[in-house]
Amino acid sequence: MSEEKESFRTSKSQTTLQLAGAAVFGALSIVLAVVATFLPRTPEGFAYFDPVSIIWILCFIIFGPVAGILCSIIGMIGLMFFDPFAPIGPLLKLCATLPMIIVPTLLKKLYKPEVGSDVLLDRKNYFVSGIIAIVVRIVIMIPINIVVYIALGFPMAGLGYWIIMVILLNALQGLWDMLVPYIIVVGAKLNERFEIW
Question: Which of 71, 85, 98, 99 could in theory staple to 136 by disulfide, Cβ–Cβ 3.0 to 4.6 A?
Answer without folding.
Answer: 99
